[in-house]
């Protein structure tokens, strides 16, 4: 089976959805990711409620053969009402999404487990998966916590989303990744990052959202990670770097990011 590569939403460095599809197609990506709900209140292209944009994106995907991998993002908060996500889920279902990136902002472990399990059941009714991303500054800080939540949900839609940057920063070990059953993952996110680094939440967030590095340009032990990525696992190339995109353009950054990721994984 040939590995599929997806252009992560952040790798577009602000490109609109139609342009993102064009970039993906030009450089050999199989899939693309769109963000319809904000991560932190940022402005987004209006794909969620602009029907004209929806038609343009669907036409671009049909014309290029690029499909939608994952949608961003559902954040589980103490006040979360899952029914509020139905317009988002209806929209991404129309786009043909497979997975939903899920983050946890709730620090109550019991409520978080209940909310995530209920979300899995809701997404399952849409034939979508709930891919839980651990991030050191959130309510799900590391790989072990994500695995416990996924296994506790005990649902076919439950999955861990492994991100090489967050893995390097969260204190998890390569043995923990090696012990993670492949069937608990649907895709992985790959990038490099600076080492050493500022461990404050503010600095971690800034790098994660705006200053990741091309594989091979940083200090993360990506070779050890790559050796454990199953050969059939979809890879989301997630390399937001606003400074580099401003210098060489979002399209060229996306091209370099895919080439570097393929070299890393031996494709």
Any overview of this molecule?
It is a single chain. The protein has eleven helices and eight strands. The two termini are 12 Å apart. The protein has a single domain, classed as TIM Barrel, CATH 3.20.20. By secondary structure, it is an alpha/beta fold. The protein has an eight-stranded parallel beta barrel with strand order 1-2-3-4-5-6-7-8, surrounded by five helices.
Give structural attributes.
TIM Barrel, 42% helix, 11 helices, alpha/beta, 8 strands, eight-stranded parallel beta barrel, 267 residues
Q: Kindly report how far apart the N and C termini lie.
A: 12 Å
Q: What spatial form do the alpha-carbon principal axes imply?
A: globular
Measured by DSSP, the beta-strand proportion falls in 15-25%
Q: What is the H/E order?
A: EHEHEHEHEHEHHEHHEHH
> CATH topology, what is it called?
TIM Barrel
The number of distinct structural domains comes to 1
